[in-house]
Amino acid sequence: MKKRLKVASLFITAGLLAACGNSNEETTTAPKKEKTEQTSETNTNAGIAATTLKDELTIFSSIKAELDKAKEGQTIDWKMVTTSYDSKLKGGVTTAAPEIDEVISSALAGVESKDLNENVARQLVDKGIQSYFYKLQKSTQATAEEAVVAGKTDEATAALNDIKEMSKTVFIPTAEKRDASYGFKNEDSIAQAINSGLTAQKEAITAKKAADFNVAKQLTDKSIYRSFYLAALGYAQKIEDGVKAGTDEKELQMEQAEGYGFLLAIEESLAGGDEEAVATLKERYDFSKTKPADVKFKEIESLFAKALTEKIDGYHEETQEALEKKDIDTARVEAMEANMFVIAMKPTLENRLGKETAQTVLADASAWYALVEKGDLKAEKTGDQITDALEPLN
Fold first, then answer.
1. Neighbours of 5 (CB within 10 A)
2. What is each CA distance from 356 to 19, 59, 275, 350, 351, in whole angstroms?
3. Considering only CA atoms, which of 219, 199, 272 is closest in space to residue 26?
4. What are the tens digits of pLDDT across the range 96-122?
5. What is the per-residue pLDDT for 13?
6. Who's near 11: CB < 8 A, 6+ residues apart?
7. What is the pLDDT of residues 199-230, one digit of tens each?
8. Hey, where are the domains in the chain?
9. Cβ atoms 311, 26 nearer than 8 A
10. What angle is formed at CA 131 by the lines to CA 52 and CA 233, rounded to 5 degrees?
11. Whole-angstrom Cα distance, residue 23 to residue 25?
12. What is the pTM of this model?
């Protein structure tokens, strides 16, 4: 009997088992669609001179360090930031996500012309580059998956190592901030979930188990996604609280810019659930269109919940279709993605449905996956309990 990935351990890490229910990550666009994204191993740029991932991460670190000088009241060397971005990052960003380059380049131009507040600009640049690395991570995951399927262990390992480097430099620090702000510790920790996902992926590569790799990939990817989503959601609350406290509007606009920057990474995925909701989210975080006083946390939370619930419904349907075809490996992946959305929504489930219902939904999600993994068609009944419970959020 073939040995499969110990999914229970992944769920413990994701905080999904039994009454522990936690919040993990989400997915990206439609599941089939995300495999078509740009790949990214060693050479990531197709514009300007080709640049290695190591170069890009080093430049990102130097840009971030320069931008962070503002926190200490020091002057930012914007010429250095612009030159560094244009020479080492712009080519890759333009290739992978031209819309993100447009945001970053416009922010840099706005600072140079003095048409844009420096604090707003630095958030758009910082979070914009982070969003680029998230997209790069996704395409590198696709590269690794293809290599595992083809039995090319060395290539899969090289791609996974790239993801590890991006995680260490970009994703883990952001996840640790979310852990601190939400009080996530131990099995609740987003940073821990990312690392556990990477470990499970490595084990799957070694065992040459493509299906297990794809299941573990969801833990890594959606945990990173979760940190970006919770960051964007959190800034909506900060803005509303800031307005009530009389915080300076420029500072509130900076927080809008931060939320907008994190939204850049996940908007394509969210649009797969509800395009209209995502369009409204972008408008609310756009300080050129919405004043801070008009940013309302309840509305933002509802828009996110609507898009995420639609995605959960879609993955449940795909899971059941795969089960009926006796395609257990596909069903496992679809079910894991659905559950990662549920985990990501834990704070909202507790806010909107109450803690008791939230715990029930999370426990049902764990039980549902166990049935899916066994290929039990009765999984549909448990799945319906989950989607029915989430219906008020849609």
1. 23
2. 9, 46, 31, 8, 11
3. 219
4. 999 999 999 999 999 999 999 999 999
5. 53
6. 17, 339, 366, 369
7. 999 999 999 999 999 999 999 999 999 999 99
8. 7-393
9. yes
10. 160
11. 7
12. 0.87
Q: What 3-state class would DSSP assign to 43?
A: strand
pLDDT at res. 45: 39
What integer pLDDT is reported at residue 187 of this predicted model? 81
Q: Strand pairing partners for 302?
A: none
Contacts of 33 (CB under 8 A, 6+ apart): 272
pLDDT of residue 188: 83
Using 50, 70 and 90 to split pLDDT, how confident is the model at 5?
A: low
**How does DSSP classify residue 378?**
T
Predicted confidence at residue 51, as pLDDT, reads 77
**Backbone Cα Rg of the chain:** 20
- How is residue 64 written in tokens? 């971030």
**Confidence at 10, pLDDT banded by 50, 70, 90:** low
Interatomic CA distance for residues 93 and 261, integer angstroms: 14
229 and 301 Cβ atoms separated by less than 8 Å: no
Q: How many angstroms separate the CA atoms of 196 and 326, rounded?
A: 29
Mean pLDDT of 306-335: 96
Residue among 24, 12, 21 at smallest CA distance from 356:
21
For residue 185, name the pLDDT band (cuts at 50, 70, 90). Answer: confident
Contact 258, 127 (CB under 8 A): yes
Using a CB cutoff of 8 Å and minimum separation of 24, what contacts does 366-373 make?
366/11, 366/16, 366/17, 366/18, 366/339, 368/335, 368/339, 369/7, 369/11, 369/332, 369/335, 369/336, 369/339, 372/319, 372/323, 372/328, 372/331, 372/332, 372/335, 373/4, 373/7, 373/328, 373/332, 373/335
d(CA 141, CA 394): 30
Q: Is 364 helix (H, G, I), strand (E, B) or coil?
A: helix
